[in-house]
Specification:
By secondary structure, this protein is of the alpha+beta class. It folds into 4 domains: 133 residues, Immunoglobulins (Immunoglobulin-like); 144 residues, Rossmann fold; 54 residues; 173 residues, no CATH class. Strands 17-20-15-14-28-27-23-24-26 form a 9-stranded mixed beta sheet. It has a 7-stranded mixed beta sheet with strand order 8-7-4-5-18-19-16, with no helix packed on it. Helix 9 runs antiparallel to helix 10. It is globular, with a radius of gyration of 28 Å. It starts with a helix and ends in a 5-residue tail after the last strand.
């Protein structure tokens, strides 16, 4: 007897794990499939962590397929599809965590995120969906189960009152069980803040803690509420959180939080801009990178001239010269030939004007962290491109990362904007360490903007050199300029830095350094500009400029004319 999926999901609604599917294929042996959402609600972008458990107690191998579809609700034409295949050997139980890509949300008209799943295969068929309803101006928050139970209803009511949601109640936070958190930072990539107790933090598996700290260093806000005396160091929280922040606050044994204080902490108390609001609003007005890229006028005159010549040929010339009186039967030959020739000419003109593939520019903000055994680079990349004729829409992104289209200023070239009628399929398929993309990420003869974030292994660093006052770069590419702020707030500057070659940074006036870095920051969209402006003020850290550093590669048909990288990070003077 099969257990009804919807009934079971309702019964387990009190858990931080939401059961999307439980399908019993064989009651006698308890052979079943469970599809568990590790968060009670999805975020408004990023990824949705799902745990798949298959208990195959039969004497033959079994397999299933899960097809996910993510949409922003209310008839939105924007969606993301992904599929995952699983197999379970006979007599074995298999558990796998997957990251389900969530669709972007280009406008304020769609205030939902809906994730549906369909299961098929040799263990049965089932389907279900899960959704969230939030206001785009509110931060996306994860709240641990321990804090959720005594506080969620009051927080939800306050958020709904504050936002005046047009579509019913708004949810302040998605709930999670710290013991079940995944070990992939992408699971948290759609959220702005994570709130948990110190006990929750110690219960969190080591892999999940590392994933959260990676998310923090990309710009996330972690708030830990301590019920007893604790310090950041005793909990293993970093003093330098990169682009993000770690806060330690006190809470009573009843775990009751002040509603006003919590809302202020995740809103005005978070120095980093809200991800969803930034993705929507940072690029459709004055986006510095788009201004740098420049516009392209459409050559109407040439195409109008072709159409006029076509009209003359297919009309008077065709009728009175090529198929004159007594030879009208020739129209059945001349008219299609003239039309075909005109079509080929138009295609040739389009190819001549636009060419194949496309071109674009990229701007990268990178935090290099060789300290504390991290050996990682935390990357934000914004890019804009204009395409000609594209022969393929599929491409591979390596590594798997947060990749989102951004609504850009309206023009005859832009396809993804903040208009209500914007549509598109932005499919992502995680595949090993990378992911396959397809759909409308790039379209022919269009302009496209994208924002990407990634965590990459890296041993690149600026370290103490062999001589007094010398430094050495271990980055695999040259650095054009480097600024360094020492412990006494004195700025230093160096140029033309090559890998492995010692260099000396000379003192420079703070006004000159600040002006130069402000000019670099102003190249970025608002959120990344804010991250750089905060990061550059840290003592013992550097800011370097590179034009030969590699970016995150996406569509192979796009020729990136410029990739400008701003690198920040500490200079470990002693290990």
């Amino acid at each position: 007897m099969r257990i009804p999926t919807l009934f079971l999901a309702a019964c387990l609604a009190v858990s931080a794990q939401e059961t999307m599917i439980r399908e019993v294929a064989d009651p006698k042996t308890d052979t079943h499939v469970e599809v568990l959402a590790l968060f009670s609600e999805p975020s408004r972008g990023g990824y949705f962590p799902v745990r798949v458990k298959i208990a195959n107690n039969l004497n033959a191998d079994r397999s299933i397929r899960l097809d996910f579809n993510s949409s922003s609700g209310f008839g939105s034409g924007v969606g993301t599809k992904s599929s995952f295949a699983f197999s379970a050997p006979a007599g074995k139980a298999v558990t796998t965590d997957i990251m389900v890509p969530l669709c972007p949300s280009p406008s304020t008209y769609a205030e939902e995120q809906v994730v549906s799943v369909e299961m098929s295969g040799s263990l049965g068929r089932a389907s279900n969906s899960i959704r969230c309803s939030t206001n785009h101006a509110e931060p996306a928050v994860l709240l641990s189960e321990a804090l959720f139970t005594p506080n969620a209803s009051l927080l939800d009511a306050e958020v709904t009152k504050k936002s005046g949601s047009r579509y019913g109640n708004s949810t302040f936070a998605s709930k999670f069980d710290p013991r079940q958190l995944p070990s992939d930072w992408l699971a948290f990539s759609g959220f702005d803040s994570i709130l948990m107790t110190d006990t929750d933090w110690t219960k969190t598996p080591a892999g999940a803690r590392n994933a959260i700290l990676s998310w923090v260093r990309l710009g996330g806000q972690l708030v830990v509420y301590a019920t007893s005396a604790a310090s950041p160091s005793s909990l293993g929280l970093p003093a330098d959180a990169g682009y993000g922040s770690c806060l330690l606050k006190n809470v009573g044994s009843d775990l009751k939080l002040s509603t006003d204080e919590v809302l202020a902490t995740v809103d005005s108390g978070n120095p980093v801009s809200k991800r969803l609001a930034s993705t929507r609003g940072d690029h459709d007005g004055v986006w510095p990178l788009q201004s740098l890229f420049g516009g392209q006028a459409f050559n109407y005159g040439l195409f109008i001239a072709v159409l006029i010549v076509f009209g003359i040929l297919v009309g008077p010339v065709n009728l009175f010269v090529l198929a004159k009186s007594g030879q009208r039967h020739r129209l059945f030959i001349t008219t299609p030939l003239i039309s075909l020739a005109a079509s080929l000419l138009l295609v040739a003109l389009i190819i001549f004007q636009d060419g194949f593939g496309g071109r674009g520019v990229r701007l990268v903000l990178m935090e290099a962290r060789p300290d504390s055994g991290q050996n990682a680079a935390f990357i934000h990349q914004e890019q804009i491109s204009r395409t000609g004729i594209l022969t393929a829409s599929r491409f591979t992104v390596d590594p798997a990362c947060l990749m989102q289209p951004v609504p850009i200023a309206k023009s005859r070239w832009s396809r993804y904007t903040s208009d209500y009628g914007t549509s598109g399929s932005f499919n992502l398929q995680p595949a090993g360490a990378g992911m396959e993309a397809s759909g409308d990420w790039w379209q022919s003869r269009s302009e496209h903007g994208h924002a990407l974030s990634a965590v990459l292994p890296s041993r690149g660093r600026i370290e103490k050199g062999p001589g007094n006052g010398q430094f050495v770069s271990t980055f695999d590419f040259p650095l054009e300029v480097l600024y360094f702020r020492d412990a006494s707030n004195q700025w230093h500057r160096a140029e033309s830095i090559r890998t492995g070659q010692p260099f000396t940074a000379e003192p420079v006036a703070s006004t000159a350094a600040e002006e130069a870095l402000a000019n670099e920051a102003n190249r970025f969209a608002s959120r990344n500009r804010n991250l750089l402006n905060r990061a550059k003020n840290r003592t013992g850290h550097f800011v370097a400029i590179a034009t030969a550093a590699p970016g995150i590669d996406t569509h192979p048909g796009i020729r990136w004319q410029e990739t400008r990288t701003l690198i920040t990070g500490p200079i470990p003077l002693a290990e």
